Amino acid sequence: MFTGIVAAIGKITEVYPLGDAAAGHRLTVNAGGLPLADVALGDSITLNGACMTVVAKTDQTFQVDVSRESLNCTAGLDAQGEVNLEKAVTLSERLGGHLVSGHVDGLGEVKKFEPVGESWLLVVEAPKTLGRYLAIKGSIVVNGVSLTVNKVADTASGCEFSVNLIPHTVQVTTLKHLKVGAKVNLEVDLIARYVERMLQFAK
Most buried of the four, 35, 88, 173, 180, by CB within 10 Å? Predict the structure, then answer.
């Protein structure tokens, strides 16, 4: 489990194909400011919100294998570049964001990203299938960052939601690099998914 509170900005420095073109990739990631002393092989770290398993490490870097299925369902894990990093939480840590599984539910598209006063307005169109999980003041994960939804509007092609990014969030995450048209990894609220499932059996 994770919280959606980014611990460091890392950088994918190398991308190796695993077998033929149909297979996935092995990524080498420079951990940046993320301490790796307590990370063991088999531990989980999220890259832009996608939970990955550490298969090798050094003092400053770690490697993960990304399956073709994961590559098809995520953005930002197929080339060199910066990524948001978070280690799995322990029971002794504060839950600063919200409960996050690290399983990307779908890809959103940035519709607007602009300064508003000292903050930034981010508008993302989510797939129509995720629209039922989005609610005002609810939680959403964008590229591994736990955010609060301010507005929701259903559209013909999906569901647009807006969030407000404070300067600190922009400074310490890769969201600062977003452009209109960019694809982002989305994870909806974990509890909302369970509530929907339970309601299917409600009498």
Answer: 173
